[in-house]
Amino acid sequence: MGIYKKLKPQENWKVPVIVLLGIISGLGFYILHISKATSYVSDDPKVCVNCHVMIPEYVSWRNSSHREWASCADCHVPQDNVAEKYFFKAKDGIYHASVYTTRGEPQVIRIKEAGKKVVHNNCIRCHENQVTDAKLASQVDGHFAHRTDRACWECHREVPHGKQRSLSTVNFVNDEELEEDVRIPAWLDEQLKENYQNKEQ
Amino acid sequence: LERKSESAFAYTPKVKIGLNEPRNKVWGENFPREYQSYLQNADTLFKSAYNGNAMIDMLEVDPRLVVLWAGYGFSKDYNQGRGHTYAVTDLQNSLRTGGPTGPDDGPMPSTCWTCKSPDVPRLMGEIGVDNFYKGKWASKGSEVVNAIGCADCHDEKNMNLKITRPALIEAFEAMGKDINQATHQEMRSLVCAQCHVEYYFDTKIPEKEGIPYLTFPWENGFSVEEMEAYYDEKEFKDWTHGLSKAPMLKAQHPGYEVYLTGIHAKRGVSCADCHMPYKSEGGQKFTDHHIQSPLNNVANSCQVCHREESENLIRDVYDRQNRIIVNRDKLEELLVRAHVEAKTAWDLGATEEQMAEILQDIRHAQWRWDYAAASHGGSFHSPVEIGRVIGTGIDVAQEGRIKLARLLIALGFEGEVPYPDIATKEKAQAFIGMDVEKLKLEKEKFQKTLLPEWMKAAEEREAKMEDGE
Amino acid sequence: LERKSESAFAYTPKVKIGLNEPRNKVWGENFPREYQSYLQNADTLFKSAYNGNAMIDMLEVDPRLVVLWAGYGFSKDYNQGRGHTYAVTDLQNSLRTGGPTGPDDGPMPSTCWTCKSPDVPRLMGEIGVDNFYKGKWASKGSEVVNAIGCADCHDEKNMNLKITRPALIEAFEAMGKDINQATHQEMRSLVCAQCHVEYYFDTKIPEKEGIPYLTFPWENGFSVEEMEAYYDEKEFKDWTHGLSKAPMLKAQHPGYEVYLTGIHAKRGVSCADCHMPYKSEGGQKFTDHHIQSPLNNVANSCQVCHREESENLIRDVYDRQNRIIVNRDKLEELLVRAHVEAKTAWDLGATEEQMAEILQDIRHAQWRWDYAAASHGGSFHSPVEIGRVIGTGIDVAQEGRIKLARLLIALGFEGEVPYPDIATKEKAQAFIGMDVEKLKLEKEKFQKTLLPEWMKAAEEREAKMEDGE
Ligand SMILES: [Ca+2]
Ligand SMILES: [Ca+2]
Q: Is B263 within 8 Å of C316 when comparing Cβ atoms?
């Protein structure tokens, strides 16, 4: 009861609040539209790179052992039941899209607690046979719990996004061009070469 | 989760394991994978740059140790530890434990057994902790026979990890902590911390006077300075040095303490993560019970977390060990010099008062050296801290030697005290006046007479134990 | 992905940037994001436990330094470096550079300018490298005015990273390496290695005799022992110590060398990864040109690779720094003692022969200390190596002091040479007999007369330069 009272707005707030809510939800749909957040309903990883802040994760995933097996959604969306799957997707989709559109994205994106749980459970979903041993689970109390009580990626630190998740994973698109390039500017190179010729004489 | 109760019906354990069952084979019936890997602890083939499964005679490799430990058991015999399988045998065969001729004979107490066998929790359960620690080690020669094993770390009812050694529990209490609060991940290191820790025998515990009670000196903390302060406050010494007469401390394998100061511990990596990584058989993972140098198993231990070439990872370990050994070796040399210089001072008639500060410096410097040296793996487990500890050791040793330089001149000595010829273990043992041949003969006699009797008695005793039903 | 190359092509430069354009603002027209972040190098607010953007008077913080550098410029004035913005100003204002009254006056050579400004490549291009190094620093006072900037690291044609300082290129050649073979990732550290390295002025290069030619002592390798051997072979000294008369070496910021020995370098992490991480603005990622302590920016630098709480990461850095400082401070104290004891020995009539070995010990011990101390960030960049270096320094310093103890007694001195009262910078400078007030007056005069003339001349000169077209 106490909590409800605290949360309940005072009477004179009613009108402004309703108006505000209207604006917010209107904006929400607008954001959904311009950011292609509706594409979240799809499981295709390409939709995640609709915004380039997801590029490092996309590229690292594309180079990982999981590319052929697991798409973004296989890990990042609950797979236990259909309702929850779409609820989570919608929640996440709207959230990411608003953050992106409002330019509010953090400098470095880090997974949140809720997201961690989802991913962790998805690791187990696919790898249950490997991480648990049905025979031992029957004899050894807490075997399942002990096997799965740490985030998988505390050990498998590079699955699937690699170690560097910054732009540095994708920065070197022009690598070839760069490798051919020399490191010493011509004006200095000439002077120093002259120096060496003098030395040899 | 539901799956769990389902399959519970499908599998019934082959045997019922009794409380404190010391025979590893019995547990192995139920857990053949773990047991098979456990049996590999007998392996002695792998040798890394400084460690490995092989038995390495450290006094041979580094005869300076003989001088550092003059007057103490370790100068007789000291090996780099090998697999858990050998804990009992190595204790029996070490020259340190002498050649007892009966239950009340020999230089070492029962307490030595504490970290060597699952017969220990069994005995402690049967006769009580105090009675276990009482008497000579020979008094329990026919009781302690099984190699370190399942009952040391596991609860027989549910295979949970558990602490079976009172010293660790008491040390936690002394620090005001409750070991029952340890997380599962912490337990994966704490089972090792039952044994891989610095210890001493406290014979002055009220109401237990005279019992060499196994105690971990952690009350002030784990660092080299905090433990030193602990011993200093108690004016405890392990022995009086044979040459310098300094009141010495012996640091024994502070593995857990050093590990705690390193980055892996800070990031929640446990001993078991590296020394007992998972192993896959038939698509299922279980804990590898072959406990050894991870350098013999880089793929399963390091590479799960570090996607680096195996040779790079090994080089990283060696890099750290090599950087540490330079100064550790230097400190060792300085300590040899300090002991010999102190002896020269005594010989020239130095007084107790003149020597007091110098001996304290030697005590502290060697304690620091030993903390670094005895902690096998420490140069990797926490290289920055070990580097620091050795740095302070060098400073203190040299302070002592500056005082010695002044004193020696005051006593009429000129020039430098010559460095002894201790190029080999034999020369070093001769230098400190030890009769090794005598020790070896005593040991041989013991091995031919008393030891076989113990083994026979133990066999008969175990034959009467119920088989796991 | 396509987006990235897209934007690469879409870009049309606003202005054309000329060869060796020293004015950062001109480059900023084309690259406003980088330039905006670059401007933040002027920030002096952040202070970490040992470093940060603020200007820290190191002689004030640690007056022992005054004694260690007695007889050398650094005892006059030494600050912990701050942002690149201040390189030119700080050189002008440092008491080390004196108060020149004209182009050929003052204690320091032109070479000092080398690492302070993008006017350096410009000048070297115009007058040649040798001519640049010739003369007093005052001779180029009106030429070097722009803060470290774009032309120091970038090629104006394509913004590729470039090496603009001959010393680094020559050092690579001396080691038999070709810097053109450096990978892109290596270049992200090598641009810093143009300046953040140990150096000396070689005045004995054939055909360039007398020119204080900037040289990196890397021929034998980067380690403290290898560089020491390099200097010893050449019998090079930076100065003769004011108290001990030891032939001293000064280690200046061996940042790159120390970094190379650490785990981050081994794993291919570059200076730029931590000190110039990527930054996000409006969904675009670009390189943050605010070069500073990463502790002021943990989220973008460390946390990209380490999924750890920011406070844990900061604590890790401090942990390492704190563990190193214990022994570094100790070594500093030992060096003060050694210098003072050596002076006492001279005063009592010691001979050159009696002192020779002792002075060599002091030289080597202080070199090791300085290698560790001058390398800001080194305690984090490579804590194990720095710990090792300091350990060897303590040993060598104490060896020298043992010899001193013997010598002092032989010279009739009794007891300990008292530690000087150097509790503050003022006391320490008085102790070594320095007239700081005179230095300050000379500097003030310079700041009021010559310096404004230079600035005016520079302004007029730059006004005639073409604007980026
Ligand atoms: Ca001990
Ligand atoms: Ca130098």
A: yes
Chain C positions touching B410 (Cβ under 8 A) are: 409
% of chain B beyond a pLDDT of 90: 93
What value, to the nearest 5°, has the Cα angle with vertex B60 and ends B59 and B64?
50
Q: Does B263 touch chain A (CB under 8 A)?
A: no
Q: Which of residues 136-155 of A touch B (CB under 8 A)?
A: 136-144, 146-147, 149-150, 154-155
HEC readout, chain C: CHHHHHHHHHCCCCCCCCCCCCCHHHHHHHCHHHHHHHHHHHCCCCECCCCECCCEEHHHHCCHHHHHCCCCHHHCCCEECCCHHHHHHHHHHCHHHCCCCCCCCCCCEHHHHHHCCCHHHHHHHHHCHHHHHCCEHHHHCCCCCCCCCHHHHECCCCCCECCCCHHHHHHHHHCCCCHHHCCHHHHHHHHHHCCCCCCEEECCCCCCCCCCEEECCCCCCCCHHHHHHHHHHHCCCCEECCCCCCEECCCCCCHHHHHHCCHHHHCCCCHHHHHCCEEEECCEEEECCCCCCHHHCCCCCHHHHCCCCHHHHHHHHHHHHHHHHHHHHHHHHHHHHHHHHHHHHHHCCCCHHHHHHHHHHHHHHHHHHHHHHHCCCHHHHCHHHHHHHHHHHHHHHHHHHHHHHHHHHHCCCCCCCCCCCCCCHHHHHHHCCCCHHHHHHHHHHHHHCHHHHHHHHHHHHHHHCCCCC
pLDDT of residue A162: 82
Contact check, Cβ <8 Å, A187/C125: yes
Q: What is the mean pLDDT of each run of 10 residues along chain B (469 residues)?
A: 44 86 96 96 94 94 98 97 96 97 95 98 97 97 97 95 98 96 96 98 96 98 98 98 98 98 97 96 90 97 94 98 97 98 98 98 98 97 98 97 96 94 98 96 97 97 80
Which chains pack against A, by 3+ Cβ pairs within 8 A? Answer: B, C
Residue C95 Cα to ligand 2 midpoint, Å, equals 19
Q: Are A167 and B58 in contact (CB under 8 A)?
A: no
| Residue range A82-100: mean pLDDT, rounded | 73
Residue A178, pLDDT score: 46
pLDDT of C7:
40
Nearest to C300 by CA among C276, C271, C268, C277: C277
CA of B214 to the centre of ligand 1 (A): 10
Q: Is the pTM of this model over 0.95?
A: no
ipTM of this predicted structure: 0.89
Looking at residue A53, the DSSP 8-state letter turns out to be G
CATH superfamily, with its number, for domain A13-180+187-195: Di-heme elbow motif domain (1.10.3820.10)
Rounded average pLDDT over C24-36:
95
**Cβ proximity of C238 and C175 under 8 Å:** no
Rounded to the nearest angstrom, the minimum Cα separation between C66 and chain A is 39
Of C8, C277, C305, the CB nearest to A163: C305
Count how many residues are written for chain B.
469
Instruction: Report the pLDDT averaged over residues C258-283.
Output: 92
Q: B365 CA to chain C: closest CA distance, Å?
A: 13
Average pLDDT taken over every residue of chain C: 94
Q: Distance between CA atoms of C27 and A30, rounded to whole angstroms?
A: 39
The closest CB to that of A185, out of C164, C299, C305, belongs to C164
Name the one residue in this structure whose structure tokens are 């499908």: B10
- Over residues B208-260, the pLDDT tens digits come to 999 999 999 999 999 999 999 999 999 999 999 999 999 999 999 999 999 99
> Is residue A38 scored above 90 in pLDDT?
no
